[in-house]
Amino acid sequence: MTSMKQTIDCTDQEWDRREKLAYCYRLVDFFGWTETIFNHISLRLPDHHYLVNPFGLNYSEVTPANLLKVDLEGNKAVPSEFDANPAGFALHSAVHGAREDIQCLIHTHTTPISAVAQKQAGFDHNNFYGAQLFGRVAYHDFEGITLFDDEKARMLSSLGSKHVLVLRNHGVAVGERSVETAFFLLWTVQRAAEIQCQAASMQGEETVLANEVRQRCADLTAMLIREGAFADRFFNAMVRKMHEEKGASW
């Protein structure tokens, strides 16, 4: 770890963020949520730059040292042999430039999430994980591949003050105050989508939860994340599990 840090010039604080973000990429790969070399996970830095993956690398190849440091226009702040995927700038730079409370932003389009995103009703909030998302999900209409600056304002308007943005007919972006809380939120969204898709394939009437129950679940989850080390413990446990099954990370 120390020798790898010596390959780039950064503060200890930035290195710690690089490590956490690299672990997040590896975990998304470990859980099978990648879209080959596409999609992005970004982490805001105190100097208004953010870290993002080098385009062309598998998530399993991302390391703390090879993460790109870019400004809000997508320009590299530190030289690198790699470039970033331009499809990530419109979404990630927009959110990082406007939402101080979102430090880490994760974009995926796994099969269950994309299936739910294609449905007009979106998430139904009737399973254990979906209930935890009640009142926390925003929706943005599909405009094509997110390459253009003019869509930034519309995406931010769609997101509002929420932390989950369903990109209709596409996928999802989740953002939170840290890598750990963003990863836990993604896991919750993924599980909600998996169960909703499975339930939709089965015969029988749905058991619809009352809004009061949904809100209680969402409030309790938010409290656990806000007041304790709930998400940190989950993230660290998943990193240990990954190490046990796949060995050293880098």
TrEMBL record:
Residue span(s) of domain Class II aldolase/adducin N-terminal: 19-197
Entry superkingdom: Bacteria
Pfam families: Aldolase_II (PF00596)
SUPFAM superfamilies assigned to the protein according to its UniProt record, in alphabetical order: AraD/HMP-PK domain-like (SSF53639)
Entry-linked Gene3D superfamilies: Class II aldolase/adducin N-terminal domain
SMART domains in the record: Aldolase_II
Family: Belongs to the aldolase class II family.
NCBIfam families named in the record: PRK07044.1
Protein name as it appears in the record: Class II aldolase
Lineage, opening ranks: Bacteria, Pseudomonadati, Pseudomonadota, Betaproteobacteria, Burkholderiales
